[in-house]
Amino acid sequence: RDVERSRGLGDVYKRQAVDGERLRAADKEPGNWMSTGRTYDEQRYSPLTEINTSNVDQLGLAWRFDLNTHRGLEATPLAIDGVLYFSGTWSVVYAVDGRTGQPLWTYDPQVDRAWGINACCDVVNRGVAAWNGKIYVGTIDGRLVAIDAKSGNKVWETLTIDKSKPYSITGAPRIVNGKVVIGNGGAEYGVRGYVTAYDSETGEQAWRFYTVPGNPADPPESPAMEMALKTWNGGEWWTVGGGGTAWDSMAFDADLNLLYIGVGNASPWSRWVRSPGGGDNLFLSSIVALNPDTGAYVWHYQTTPAETWDYTATQHMILADIEINGETRKVIMQAPKNGFFYVIDRETGEFISAENYVPVNWATHVDPETGRPVETDEQFRDQAKMTVPSPFGGHNWQPMSYHPGTGLVYIPAREMAFKYEREENFKYGENRWNMAINMEAMMPPAGVEPKLMRRIMKAMARGHISAWDPVNQREVWRVKHPGPWDGGMLSTAGNLLFQGTAEGELKAYDVEDGTLLWQHETQSGIVAAPISYAVDGDQYVAILVGWGGALGLAGGIAPNLGDKVGGRLLAFKLGAQGELPAVPEPPAPPKPPEQTASTETITRGHQLYHTYCNVCHGMGAESGVLADLRHMTPHTHKIFNDIVLDGIYSGMGMAGFGDYINKDDAEAIHAYLIEMAHAEQTELNESATWSAIKAVSYTHLRAHETSLHL
Ligand code: CA
């Protein structure tokens, strides 16, 4: 108590612990943000009004907390009775005083950095859960940990995965009826998805729900798996895993006692490899309703039957009661990657409506009678097809927000094309993406300069806020962004909509029409979603700032400030005038060594790089988050093979690839990187560039009028 008082926390710990009753009545505590979506219905709407459209111009920086990381921050903090709890990279958990940012404790689960090789989309974590005096986090290496909320000490931990498989956890746990529910990721590498519930006090497993069937030679684990198995035909998906990982979204309806889970994409992606006899392949890309006490299946709605584009349905799900045709409907809403916005009856799973919220060319529409998408043609079965949306989705994990006053859902959307092409003679391989898709197909044809290539990539991808009317299924207004990878949303009863951008700004808009009312520099790109909370009568807006995640890592596609400043939590309140320290000038990149390799070797290096390296180090060797490999020092060049083959930097997250590539391969990759370093220092001829972009775009890359922004 004395320690608490000396920290000035007053009655912070006097209140009862967070439990189901408090979470169900979260609207009675508008100053708190007690679960990742604030309420069980995950609307991400704050009822606080102190900060509003009339005074938001007086919003200033109250405090900052530095996390000492240079990788992506995706978490939504919790705010409970004046304390903020949140997670950072490598699943580290922090508790700070909500009024000052003063640290209370840090819990580091000591993740083996070499496990980072299994994280497709940065070593991120999207947040923690709170229950009965404990804070819960899922770690990137597959553990679920319960931490004492006062001391930051571990209470229990349990392993939720088979460590011989490339699973990872990035999503926030949800706690329902005393059980902690957690899923996992890894479908790109090749795993079988499931969610598991654990007793919140003991960590004992209560139930597990598999999302896709295993080997048909083994008995199905549940009636749901028996049903699902009938929708998979031929192929040997179980050897790759099948996918269907539930790596992010969940929601809970306490009245219906239904837990909703969002299920991810297939592994491998290609349906012609995975299930050559056809079928819907349940429960890929589905919303599944479960009994949270038993894990028993109740209903499902599949957004993308037989998905083959990485069109996950793991995107944020919002529960709301809205009036449709004069009738109040209990709905669940989602804008999954596939480009359609869905309104589904959350009691029965009945399809209500769907319209595309971004350009879509894999389906013409969703049939209102059957609730199934009507596909356009044979897709990329026989030849490559430029498709919208891309695997990054019309919308990804960045949370949306529902404002009950406007009735609008605010979607952090993107328009981006991707060239899908089947990988010839696909064979499963460890420590690589196993999608049966040729990643190199995305590259422009041979001979196109790397700088030009990046401009083409950038020209193909843009983001925007879409203010979406779910009743009439139409966009009401839009705010365009220069890049495709911006932050999640928060709307408030002060009629404000907050979002952080890739360019490094937190912005506030009018919820009615998208008018920009306020912005503040944050010095690094933002991908996380903001929250609002109140302590001692002051309303705050807080957000994690730290560029990264899938498209952040991808490098050249998304404009960003890089990692000149480390990750931070920033908190704003009215009248505050805090300032961020000046950003240091980056040193000039070192001169690359001379190129001694043959064109053939460089070309082979290009292929190998885009098989093993590009997902983390960026397409075309332009890094977005990690050290830029075009800027290696003479010493790094000297020890290149020790890093790449022997893994001498595995303690920093760079695992050795010696089991998968040989010395010749490493040298070819090295030669390619040297080539890219020289290319970076060559000036591009501007006018020639633009005519080449147009020529390439129209003959090779053109997908959809609105997906190209030339
Ligand atoms: Ca995926």
Shape: globular
Q: Classify the secondary structure makeup into a structural class.
A: alpha+beta
- List low-confidence stretches: 1-14, 698-710
- Physical arrangement of strands within the biggest beta sheet: 1-33-34-35-36
Please state roughly what percent of the residues sit in beta strands, choosing from under 5%, 5-15%, 15-25%, 25-35%, 35-45% or over 45%. Answer: 25-35%
Number of helices: 13
- Tell me about the biggest sheet? 5 strands, mixed
Unique ligands? calcium ion
Bin the helical content.
10-25%
Span of the ends, CA to CA? 62 Å
Mean pLDDT: 91
| Beta strands, count | 39
Alpha carbon gyration radius: 24 Å
Commentary on this structure:
The chain is of the alpha+beta class and 710 residues long. The strands form 11 sheets. A 5-stranded mixed β-sheet has the order 1-33-34-35-36, with no helix packed on it. α6 (450-459) packs across α13 and α8 packs across α12. It is globular. It binds calcium ion.
Outline:
This protein is an alpha+beta fold and 710 residues long.
Please tag this protein with its features:
disordered N terminus; binds calcium ion; 39 strands; globular; alpha+beta; 710 residues; disordered C terminus
